[in-house]
Amino acid sequence: MKNFKKLKIWEQAMEVVRKTYSLSKQLPAAERYGLTSQITRAAVSIPSNIAEGSSRTTDKEKKRFAEIALGSAFELETQLLIIKEIGWANAEEWDKLMECLHVEQRMINSYISTLKRNS
Question: With contact defined as beta carbons under 8 Å apart, do 95 and 77 qualify?
């Protein structure tokens, strides 16, 4: 699939990015180069790898990029759990982001399963 912008998995990942940037504004200024940078980089990595994988010609290559996106999603989840543990985020906004992220993780897992069956 060359037009990655039509992929639901990419659209959902972009929603994760939007919600992550919104939540990142709640973090202390001292975390600009710490958790703020880490969560935004991990979030941006998800749709970026989905887009890059969509340009590949084989299912094996597409699966590799989907697995990288999933790894970034789990990285982001861990960082969000740290933020919650420390108490730096609004609970309602955190919950919405985590729910959105879990949907994305399930979508990526399903996509990877489909690619495995096809190859």
Answer: no
